[in-house]
Amino acid sequence: MANTTRANIQRKRKKMRRKRRVRFFRLLVVVIIMGAIFVGVVFVGYSLFQWGSHIFADYQAMYAGYTERMERQRGAVDPRFDGYTNVLILGLDDGVGSDNSGLQAADTIILASLENDTGRVRFITIPRDTWVGQTKISSLYGGGGAPLMVR
Question: Is the pTM value of this prediction over 0.70?
Answer without folding.
Answer: no
